[in-house]
Amino acid sequence: MWGWVLKRDPQLLVVRRAVRVTLVACLGFYLCRYVIGSADAAPYALFGTIALGALSQIPGSPRQRARTLVAVLPVVWGLISLGTLLSVSNWAAAAGMFVLGFTVSFVGVGGPRLVGLAAGMQLLYILPCFPPYDPGALPERLAGVTLAVALLATAELFLWPDPAPVPYRHRLADAVSALAACLEALADDWSGDRTGRDRLAALVPEATEAADELRPSRLPPIERPASAGRHDRALSAAAGTSRLLLGRVVDLYFSADREAITRSAAIKLLSATAGCVGATGAWLRGDGPLPDTNVVAAAVTDFRAARMNTDPNGLPPERLRLGALALSLGEWTKSLVVAVRIAAGEPPGHPDPTPETARPGQFWYAYRRTPALYWHRLRENLTPRSVAFQGALRLAVALAVARLIAGELDLSHGFWVLLTILTVLRASAAETRSTLRPALVGTVAGSVVAALILLPGLDPLVFAVALPFVMIAGFAAGPLLGLGWSQALFTLVITLVFAQVTPVDWRLAEQRVADVLIGAAIGVLIGLFAWPRGGAGELHRATGTFLASAAEVVRETIAVMANGATPGNALPKARFAGQLAEASFALYQSERHAPARLDWQATLVAGHHAVRGAEALVRSCPAGGLLPFVNQLTALADDVAACYDAAAERLLRNETPGRPPDRPAPPRWPDDLGQDLYIVADLRAWLDGLREDLTNMTGRPEPGDEIRVRVSRVADGAT
Asked: In sequence order, what are the residues at sequence separation of 6 or more whose Cβ sits closer than 8 angstroms to the Cβ of residue 252?
């Protein structure tokens, strides 16, 4: 038995949590019920612990979770006070349920910590919003829940605490350090060291696997850097930049021409990039000082100067492309370091270049205060196209309708109806239906056992002794055995609790079944009528919109750089579309689906590469200086943008995009126009990279395996 538990719960996280919540809930309940003698405080001590300890998912170390519990205590007081006062009438309680249900759920767009608290906070309003209307009992209710929070925070620190999870920055450190090793091997290869190429062949697959560990799909939702604050935004930006850098390393590895434009400057740039990336990984791991952009910035400047002092006329296009790829390594390394410094709390080293009236840049959030960032996140998601808005509105309507029906039917334990909705309502109608059978079967089974327990009229002391054992089993059963077992045992827990507070008989079990049936019916109906497809339907639309916006970014960037056009709103629109697409992808990952034919992560990367590449190009290259090439560049950009548009159209029709058509024959580029050839090479390298991104959207078995095959083939050919 113990071996089976260890197999399913290797670190005993589920068991630890079940034990902590049970001991705190029972201690608080027994103190209030049997020592203090307060029948009003006892249920709030118990259900406060269940709400914040069992229903809530609070990320971080034990110390961080304890701080979070203490910090939300004023919010807990407010919810219980509002529920108590609004229970004066059914309509007032239902209206409050709608407003608070939407608000508590919607503020989850601010980050995983808020999402994890949402279900527990809902329960803390649900419990007091039912009759009896008794404002005089409010002090005892607040005292009970305060005791629960204090005991739970203490238990998080001292009662079999969980091991601290691996911080995201340590995962990022692994990926960045592996990337630095690849860059060092690449620099050695360019220096003529034969072992550098062999080392790179071994390092690239491992670096790819480390980068894949940063995928949101491989992280628990509460551990993703998804909050609206500067720290998480910067860590997320750093992770995305590190993946782009690794892609550039792979491109350089597979380049046929191994000669740089100016060999010494290119080697210096690669060495500086490798050192700066390595210092970034060391700081993320806590082994060194914050990295400085000056070293790599100086190397980028020297490389640009070397290009300016070198006549590119007559150089092969592949060699020009190689220099453009090397330059992008330096530029993106600067972005990586800036993001990490922002995550560390360092203010940017220059005045805000992106006031509200200007086009915001990549690191606009570094100049905003935390409350403003959270308000910005809430405001941009306040649209029916946001999955956060859809989910919050769906849940609010279901809870408000359930509260109104329970009140009108005068159900004696109506809060069970709303608790059932919190349990079974999912993002899609299909997932909601899939939870019904185990929930109903478990509830009926638990109710039958509860009725058998209540029939003999046992002494309440028996219920008090049995409660901790049943509660531990109930809290562990859900994650280990499934929803049916969880519902059955939780039904017994509720029966044992109410048998100690008020006189009950076997009809309590009957009421429990009726309430669960009503709650399940409401949840199913709301799920069918309110965005029934969940994250899957919205993900197609959101990513399609994102790729269409990326196509406009491509066209606008070429128009600005080649033709001197005035920048429009393509970049801000694409950033916003990317944020909604990322939110839809996060919801999609929380649902159960058959294996997708489309690599959604690669699809998002294709959009982000267009946006970030355009930002770097517009920032580093002169605008309107390429009129002699405007026709060729416009034709090439239109071809890439058309591929993005075609993929977007198929996504908007809920279809899987096909692979883009073969690259058209390249136009004849002039090779005797001096320094402008370098800018053309930078643009062409970006556009070629975007086209490659589109070919990756149709999915690979495993990115690491794919690159291993490619690397081994090149290595075998080289030997």
From this structure: 186, 322, 325, 326, 329
Minimal CA–CA distance to 293: which of 331, 334, 265? Answer: 334
Structure confidence at residue 669 as a pLDDT band (50, 70, 90): low
Residue 279 exposed, middle or buried by CB count within 10 Å (0-12, 13-18, 19+): buried
Report the C-alpha gap between 550 and 281 in whole angstroms. 31
CA atoms within 13 A on the CB side of 666: 10
Beta strands in 118-195 (DSSP E): none
* Residue 121 burial (C-beta neighbours within 10 Å; 0-12, 13-18, 19+): buried
The first and second tokens of residue 507, run together, are 């009809």
Compute the distance between CA of residue 81 and CA of residue 88 in angstroms, rounded to an integer.
12
CB 200 within 8 A of CB 253: yes
At residue 706's C-alpha, the angle toward residues 705 and 712, to 5°, is: 85
Report pLDDT digits (tens) over 269-308. 889 999 999 999 999 998 889 988 888 888 888 888 877 7
Cα angle 583, 385, 434 (rounded to 5 degrees) comes to 70
Go through 399-424 and write b for each residue having 16 or more CB atoms within 10 A of its CB, e for each that does not: bbbbbbbbbeeebebbbbbbbbbbbb
Per-position DSSP letters for 452-518, written without gaps between them: HHHTTT--HHHHHHHHHHHHHHHHHHHHHH-HHHHHHHHHHHHHHHHHHHS---THHHHHHHHHHHH
The tokens 């304890």 sit on which residue?
Answer: 66
Helices vs. strands in the chain: H and E counts, helices first: 27, 0
Tell me the per-residue pLDDT of 195-235, one tens digit each, with 9 for 90 and over: 888 888 889 889 989 988 888 778 887 888 888 899 998 99
Q: Output the pTM of the full model.
A: 0.83
Give me the residue label for tokens 């229903």: 55
Q: Do residues 111 and 184 make contact, with C-beta atoms less than 8 angstroms apart?
A: no
Torsion of CA 368, 372, 377, 383, to 10 degrees: -130
End-to-end CA distance of the chain: 54
CA 104 → CA 117, 119, 154, 414, 438, distances in Å?
A: 9, 8, 25, 21, 27
Pairwise CA distance, residues 706 & 475, whole Å: 42
Instruction: Classify the C-alpha dihedral 62-65-71-73 as positive or negative.
Output: negative
SS3 string of 313-360?
Answer: CCCCHHHHHHHHHHHHHHHHHHHHHHHHHHHCCCCCCCCCCCCCCCCC
Both structure tokens of 299? 């190397």
Bond into 132 cis (ω within 30): yes
CB 269 within 8 A of CB 329: yes
Neighbouring CB atoms inside 10 A of 681's CB total 25
Q: 488-495 — which CB contacts under 8 Å span 24+ positions?
A: 488/442, 488/443, 488/445, 488/446, 488/449, 489/446, 490/446, 491/442, 491/443, 491/446, 491/447, 491/449, 491/450, 492/446, 492/449, 492/450, 492/453, 493/467, 494/416, 495/450, 495/453, 495/454
Q: What is the DSSP letter of 202?
A: H
Contact 424, 523 (CB under 8 A): yes
Q: Which residues touch 407 (CB under 8 Å, ≥6 apart)?
A: 90, 93, 94, 130, 131, 414
